[in-house]
Amino acid sequence: MRCSSDMLFGRGVMDVGGWTCCTESQDLPWWAWLVVGGFVGGVLAYFLARVIAVRRSGTTRDPLPRLAAEPVVAVVQAFHPAPLPVWNRRRTSAIGRFLDWYRGLAPASAHEAYVRSLIHDAWLVEVEYTAEAGEPIRACLADVIAGSDLPCFTVGAEVAVWSFENPRTRLRADAGAAGAPASVRCLLSEAHTGTQRAGYDLDGVRARIERVRWTGPRAGSPFLGIMEFKTERDPFGGEVQGERCSFPADPQGIWAGMAHPARVVRRTADAPWPESVKEVRLWEDSDSFARTQLIVAPIFWVCLPVAAIGFLWFLTVNDSSDAGPDGFFWALWVAAFIWLLVSIGVLVHRLSIRKDDLASHERIYRHGVLCTLHRAPWDRSGGEGDTYPTFIALDHRLDDHGAARIHQALRTWITAVTTIDTSCLDEVVPAEQLFGTEAEGGWYLPSISGFGTAEDFAAYQWVLITAPKDSEAAHLMVTTVPQGKVFRRMREKAHRQVERSRR
Fold first, then answer.
1. CA 297, CA 339: separation in Å to the nearest integer?
2. What is the pLDDT of residue 57?
3. Which stretch of DSSP H or E encloses residue 187?
4. Distance between CA 220 and CA 242 in Å, rounded?
5. DSSP H/E element including 289
6. pLDDT of residue 333
7. Residue 13 neighbours by CB distance under 10 Å
8. What are the angstrom distances between the C-alpha of 199 and each of 138, 219, 247, 255, 420?
9. 316 membership: H or E segment, kind and range
10. Which own/partner contact pairs does 287-296 have at CB distance under 8 Å and 24+ positions apart?
11. How far from 407 is each of 245, 261, 392, CA to CA, in Å?
């Protein structure tokens, strides 16, 4: 049947010219494009300005600048009252006070007065030292000195300080302000470990305002061995996590008072040592999530572009048109090949990660220390009313008296720290760092991967603790040991895998 021209261009069919005209009439006018462009440009300019402002003001997430090669001798020049930390401005606004009243919080003025009552007198000590180029530099100690130790820093006294390699500061120059403290900062060296600090003041070093005041003075540097510094080995911004060398609550006095500790319950006779690397691998990845994420999923994403290329090849071979494939079809070819290359790159990267995981499993099996796990007397708050337990791990090879002394000393120290400052309880703390080499074999663990809330914690557990291969790594490797039927099922599965590998 042949269609007539009336049927093609009749009343019931839209005219091609009319469609083109309608499409052109829907184009935006020039002023609309100007408004859209101005809005998008304003948003981009706003975010760019915010990024520049944050970059110029600095952030405390960056490592501290590189220190000079050796400490230098500085001469005390003056003293200044240490400024208090900046209060939260939200609490001083009308909306902030309303929110405080609604949530049952203390008013801003009462809160500030309470915090001020807890803070002891503290001082910035201004010193002068000679830089490597021979230039005299006036700087304030970033260690805020407690009033009880201020007589040790008389004007003209000499102190050993660490200076930053680049004394650049983010604060404005203070030369014109009479009596204002210097904006440059330096750190007390290890020779002054016993000096009592009331906090620290790093204003201008990596951020414009960075001040911390403790509720009570404590000895030891708050920077050396605790905070991160840029290193000479990686001049492009590498950082090394230090090892904390000072703790509050007098851990040495606590250790000395633990001559007759209460016995801690431990069952060392049935210690579940791993029998093979494959068993450790099952403990580390019991639900095969890492294997799926690092191997199965990348292989699947490689198969998808391969299938797309095969489909495009089928369409190309079976194309019967005289004109051949158009530009859009070749663009699909290019996109499919780019997709394939990206997928292969992701697969290679994930396989390298998997290789590192297998090496860590081997290290856990060879060097892991089997420890009994016990609840610590402090739970971390997880928000919304949830609490998460913290733990004390004890090497099962310790004798009963040594394990009981370490366990009781750690519990006593944790209880004392929770009333002073809990910031040091957010990191893994080996007992030997607190109490000396006699306490080797105990650890405080703020969290363990895979554990739930405090109500889900079993009364008795085992873990494998492995020191990192790199001595400068920040964290220990903690591997949980399953119990009961799960442990027996994983051991049987590991035995089957070992038997298959021997065939």
1. 15
2. 67
3. strand 185-188
4. 14
5. helix 289-291
6. 86
7. 10
8. 21, 10, 13, 25, 13
9. helix 297-317
10. 290/354, 290/357, 291/354, 293/350, 294/350, 294/351, 294/353, 294/354, 294/357, 295/350, 295/351, 295/354
11. 21, 9, 7
DSSP 204: T
Measure the CA–CA gap between 415 and 379, rounded to whole angstroms.
11
**CB-CB neighbours of 204 under 10 Å:** 23
The one-letter amino acid code at 194 reads G
Contacts of 80 (CB under 8 A, 6+ apart): 123, 124, 126, 140, 181
Strands 158-163 and 72-81: antiparallel
Q: Contact at 8 Å (CB) between 125 and 181?
A: no
Burial class (CB in 10 A: 0-12, 13-18, 19+), 495: middle
DSSP 8-state assignment for residue 2:
-
Q: Are 89 and 209 in contact (CB under 8 A)?
A: no
> DSSP of 120-153, one letter per residue?
PPEEEEEEEEE-TTS-EEEEEESEEEEGGGGGGS
Contact 488, 422 (CB under 8 A): no
Each of the 503 residues of the chain gets a pLDDT tens digit; together they read: 444 444 444 444 444 444 333 434 445 677 777 887 888 888 888 888 877 776 666 777 778 888 888 899 999 999 998 887 765 444 455 666 666 666 565 565 555 565 555 566 889 999 999 988 788 999 999 999 998 899 999 999 999 999 998 888 877 655 446 678 888 999 999 889 889 898 899 988 888 888 888 767 888 888 887 787 876 444 444 444 445 566 778 888 889 888 777 777 766 667 788 888 888 888 877 666 777 888 888 889 999 999 999 988 888 887 766 655 666 777 888 888 999 999 998 888 888 888 888 888 888 888 888 998 888 888 877 655 567 888 999 998 888 888 899 999 999 999 988 877 777 788 888 898 888 889 999 999 988 876 666 556 664 578 888 887 755 445 688 888 887 787 888 888 888 887 887 77
Residue written as token pair 């009439």: 25
Phi-psi region of 149 (alpha: psi -120 to 50; beta: other; left: phi over 0): alpha
What's the residue count for the chain? 503
Tokens linked to 39:
């809005």
How much is the pLDDT for 102? Answer: 64
Per DSSP, the three-state class of 349 is helix
Would you say 236 and 468 are in contact if contact means Cβ atoms under 8 Å apart? no
Q: Would you state the pLDDT for residue 246?
A: 67
Going by C-alpha positions, the residue among 55, 58, 72, 63 that lies closest to residue 235 is: 63
- Look at strands 185-188 and 136-141 and give their pairing: parallel
Structure tokens that stand for 63 in this block: 């490592």
> What region does 199 belong to: left with phi over 0, alpha with psi -120 to 50, or beta?
left
